[in-house]
Amino acid sequence: MARKMRFLLILLVVAEVLAVARISLALTSTNDAYPSGYGDDSGACGVTGEKLVPVRREVYGNGKIFDITHRITSDSLFDGSEGDGKFVWLSRSMKNGSDYNFSIMKLPVHSGTHVDAPGHYFDHYFDAGFDVDTLDLDVLNGPALLVDVPRDKNLTAEVMMSLNIPKGVRRVLFRTLNTDRRLMWKKNFDTSYVGFMKDGAQWLVDNTDIKLVGVDYLSVAAYDDLIPAHLVFLESREIILVEGLKLDDIQTGIYSVHCLPLRLLGAEGSPIRCILIK
Ligand SMILES: *[C@@H]1O[C@H](CO)[C@@H](O)[C@H](O)[C@H]1NC(C)=O
Ligand SMILES: *[C@@H]1O[C@H](CO)[C@@H](O)[C@H](O)[C@H]1NC(C)=O
Ligand SMILES: *[C@@H]1O[C@H](CO)[C@@H](O)[C@H](O)[C@H]1NC(C)=O
Q: From 3.50.30.50, 3.40.390.10, 3.40.50.150, 3.40.50.1000, which CATH number describes the 114-277 domain?
């Protein structure tokens, strides 16, 4: 028994030594700035003779990383308005003799997949500076539950109760009829989307620990309760609303969510990139 143990221990030590040796070898070979091996993933960029076809993906990492952000295009829906065309254009272009291409973008901060800051619906929060730069990245990143809600109702207190979301769950993404109807892909704003009614928002605030509320259309609040439901969520400044998520073709369940807004000083909203990792 003891001999076997000693043998195992020796094996472990040898493996450890080999691993360290491998790493230090890598570190000292050809490049001191970073371990070689990290940069060996070549072939992706700048290889001549290759056909230049960019790959656009929704899923990465062998099915482990899901992009739940909608791509912003000239057809994208901007919160409350119709897609108004061009959002990015070249101000300097190589075709016109510039040494480089250089684009300018202009788009509403509530475009596509985006986040609301407390200042969106509370003027005194806006004046006090509760902008997207003040949002807590700890709320925007961490374990999250993706749930399917009943398709025949808006998000009422009754619906919230029926979901049985356990205490302690801090981030929930709600998939609704909006996803089935592919509303985010439509060019016109559709006021019949599913969203939170005031009592649904209130129930969630009173009875759960949810701090990140994600939905699959441009507004977390149903059109009929647009203002009251937003007020209930944003009043405490503890709940972060992520709107316009792309939740198609993803299984319900537990993921790690990662959402990062731009640090737009003074802005009450920002486009946001969100991913789920299984
Ligand atoms: C942008 O730059 C590329 C080279 O990187 C050039 O081939 C292309 O023509 C430029 N596009 C425009 C619109 O100027
Ligand atoms: C290049 O310049 C021409 C003439 O000013 C303009 O019509 C065209 O839109 C420009 N193209 C780009 C890509 O900037
Ligand atoms: C949700 O509420 C909107 C109005 O805000 C309404 O048009 C829609 O039909 C409702 N959806 C469901 C599934 O009840």
A: 3.50.30.50
> What pLDDT is recorded for position 29?
53
Q: Which residue, 14, 8, 58, is CA-closest to 248?
A: 58
Q: Which two tokens stand for residue 63?
A: 């099915």
pLDDT in tens, 6-44: 554 455 445 555 554 554 554 555 667 877 765 444 444
Would you say 132 and 267 are in contact if contact means Cβ atoms under 8 Å apart?
yes
Report the pLDDT value the prediction gives residue 116, as an integer from 0 to 100: 96
Q: How far does the centroid of ligand 1 lie from the alpha carbon of residue 112, in Å?
A: 27
- In short, whether 226's Cβ falls inside 6 Å of ligand 3 is no
Which residue in the block uniquely carries the two structure tokens 């060996």? 40
**Short-list 236, 190, 237, 253, CA closest to 216:** 190
Report the chain's mean pLDDT, rounded to a whole number. Answer: 87
At residue 17, the pLDDT reads 52
| Residue 272 contacts residue 259 (beta carbons within 8 Å) | yes
**Average pLDDT of span 245-266:** 98
- In the chain, what are the domain boundaries? 2-55, 114-277
* Ligand 3 proximity of 150 Cβ (cutoff 6 Å): no
State in Å: Cα 98 to ligand 2 middle: 11
91 lines ligand 2 (CB under 6 A): no
- Higher-pLDDT residue of 81, 156: 156
